[in-house]
Design a protein that fits this description.
Elements (H helix, E strand, L loop, with lengths): L1 H23 L8 H7 L3 H21 L4 H28 L2
Helix pairs in contact: 1-3, 1-4, 2-3, 3-4
Length: 97
């Protein structure tokens, strides 16, 4: 579970970086209305809040790591972030072709 949570954190950092890049270069818009509103204040607050939320979530999942629901939640987070990073790869490839 430790490796999965570390990977979730790494993928979240990658997601925040790629989201910031595609939004500042007008390649995409933030689909989450709350995070989109936060982007009105700039990329730095967006990244700080995004990373803060995931770090808090990871801490909670780690605290309850022996709970079956926490293990399922960790796997769901991992899957979602893997799919999201794949989607970013697709978007960036489409823009460059």
């Amino acid at each position: 579970m430790k490796a999965a949570l570390i990977l979730v954190l790494v993928l979240n950092v990658l997601d925040a970086t790629l989201t910031s890049f595609v939004i500042t270069n007008a390649m995409a818009v933030e689909m989450n209305p709350l995070m989109g509103a936060l982007l009105d204040y700039g990329v730095v607050p967006f990244v700080i809040v995004k990373l803060g939320i995931i770090i808090l979530s990871i801490a909670i999942l780690w605290k309850y790591r022996y709970n079956k629901l926490a293990r399922i939640g960790t796997n769901v987070c991992l899957l979602v972030y893997l799919l999201l990073v794949c989607y970013f790869g697709y978007v960036l490839l489409e823009v460059n072709t």
